[in-house]
Amino acid sequence: MDTxxxxxxxxxxxxKYLLTLTNNDYQFAEELTQETFYQAIKSIDKFHEDGKAKxxxxxxxxxxxVWLQELNRSKKRQQLTDLLTNEKKSSYNLEEDxxxxxxxIHFFKQAHQLTDKKREILYLRLLGDLTFKEIGSIFGKxxxxxxxxxxxxxxxxxxxxxxxxx
Length: 166
Description:
Layout: H1 3-21, H2 26-42, H3 44-50, H4 55-112, H5 116-126, H6 132-139, H7 143-165
Helix pairs in contact: 1-2, 1-4, 2-4, 5-7, 6-7
Protein name: RNA polymerase sigma factor
Pfam families: Sigma70_r2 (PF04542), Sigma70_r4 (PF04545)
Keywords: DNA-binding, Sigma factor, Transcription, Transcription regulation
């Protein structure tokens, strides 16, 4: 039996097997089928030495290995792409983080100028992520009191910023 006869006899069987592995991706299954037969021709001596498995089973094991190798290659390509993408982001983020840090320093300098109560309410709301109701209960006041005090603290910081800019 020559390679052309083998291909004619088993290609459809291997293709259908690979079609199930590739979730019905016809083009991918075709490419893998071609690679499967290429690998089978390269290692036909191993099949004859073994002689225990059916030829179709041997071809399917090659097909599965070819499929797994391609998945592994795709995964590595994706990891490399992700790594390069993250590298671009991190270099961009470094500059962005610097400005965020500068903004934080400026914010905390402004907050330091507030009264103790206003500063604490600001911190509880922004850093502690507490609701106005929770802040009010901490101070023994109403939710509305906490909301108004927070608003006034923000306004004072904005006013102080405008003074600093002029």
